[in-house]
């Protein structure tokens, strides 16, 4: 019995289809079928009922699948355990991040870490926060820096909070609510809003905040680029909420009114990794290092 044969069988058991399993494994269907036939021959039992559609596991196949899953899990744990003993030389950390990192001194963080650990390569990619959560959850990334989504608790992540950044309200300067000292979201139930798109975690944050104030927002337009949202506000399309750091880089303030929120809403910038029993030494080194930049308490 070969490890490859176990992996092939488990792919068929999951897909209940030889063609789909072969595509998933990037092998030909004939090669897949031959390996499973050889496995059944070596064991002296039938594992798969090929006559039924979709194919089904025999009683022996069901038992085999249960124990084989434990074997593969144990091998995965073994591999991860051995990663902790790998030397740092030539290690690469895959780090994902959003573009809007507020006032976090990312260049300083990476530069200082590289000064101490110049043997570790850093591979950096940019995505929106929801996509970063997905990639981190799928082990495509080792670390991710993002705005925490509304449902962050559903992920099995270790999290360090790097910054709580407040949002402000942006209104046309001639708007009836523009003359107040602060902006109450509860008073804007009948207003039109310009929000980020649904792929952006701020969309969920803003819509949930509106619902907590007792209304579903009327979204006149969606746009992920904060400066474009401000331009749309100036044009009278609607109101918007913008992080303070995004606003600080906007060059034109004429035609708009900027108000703090009566009930603050925050963009929580965090760095996260998957929770595991054992971490590769390069990842653990970076995690220990970056804690000096985390906010006290690390509460979201």
Automatic annotation (TrEMBL):
Gene3D superfamilies: 3.40.190.290, Winged helix-like DNA-binding domain superfamily/Winged helix DNA-binding domain
One annotated Gene Ontology cellular component of this protein: protein-DNA complex
Keywords: DNA-binding, Transcription, Transcription regulation
Listed GO MF terms: DNA binding; DNA-binding transcription factor activity
Signal peptide bounds: none
PROSITE patterns for this protein: HTH_LYSR
InterPro entries: LysR_HTH_N, LysR_subst-bd, WH-like_DNA-bd_sf, WH_DNA-bd_sf
Domain spans labelled HTH lysR-type: 1-58
Pfam family, one: HTH_1
Family: Belongs to the LysR transcriptional regulatory family.
Cited PANTHER family: HTH-TYPE TRANSCRIPTIONAL REGULATOR CYNR (PTHR30346:SF28), TRANSCRIPTIONAL DUAL REGULATOR HCAR-RELATED (PTHR30346)
Protein name listed in UniProt: LysR family transcriptional regulator, transcription activator of glutamate synthase operon
């Amino acid at each position: 019995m070969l490890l490859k044969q176990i992996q092939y069988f488990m792919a068929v058991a999951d897909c209940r289809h030889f063609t789909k399993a072969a595509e998933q494994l990037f092998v030909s269907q004939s090669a897949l079928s031959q390996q499973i036939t050889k496995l059944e021959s070596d064991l002296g039992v039938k594992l798969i009922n090929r006559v039924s559609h979709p194919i089904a596991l025999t009683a022996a196949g069901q038992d085999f699948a249960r124990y084989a899953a434990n074997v593969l899990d144990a091998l995965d744990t073994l591999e991860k355990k051995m990663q902790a003993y790998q030397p740092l030389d030539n290690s690469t950390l895959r780090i994902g991040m959003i573009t809007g990192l507020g006032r976090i001194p990312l260049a300083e963080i990476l530069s200082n870490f590289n000064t101490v650990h110049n043997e570790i390569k850093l591979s950096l990619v940019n995505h929106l926060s929801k996509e970063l959560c997905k990639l981190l959850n799928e082990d495509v990334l080792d670390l991710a820096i993002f705005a925490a989504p509304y449902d962050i608790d559903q992920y099995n992540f270790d999290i360090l909070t790097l910054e709580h950044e407040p949002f402000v309200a942006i209104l046309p300067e001639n708007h009836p609510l523009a003359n107040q000292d602060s902006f109450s979201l509860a008073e804007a139930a009948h207003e039109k809003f310009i929000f980020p798109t649904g792929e952006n975690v701020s969309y969920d944050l803003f819509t949930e905040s509106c619902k907590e104030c007792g209304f579903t927002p009327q979204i006149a337009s969606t746009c992920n680029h904060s400066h474009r949202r401000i331009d749309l506000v100036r044009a009278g399309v609607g109101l918007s909420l913008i992080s303070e750091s995004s606003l600080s880089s906007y060059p034109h303030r004429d035609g708009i009114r900027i108000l703090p929120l009566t009930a603050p809403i925050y963009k929580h910038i965090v760095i996260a990794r998957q929770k595991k029993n054992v971490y590769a030494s390069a990842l653990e080194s970076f995690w220990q290092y970056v804690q000096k930049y985390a906010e006290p308490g690390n509460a979201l």
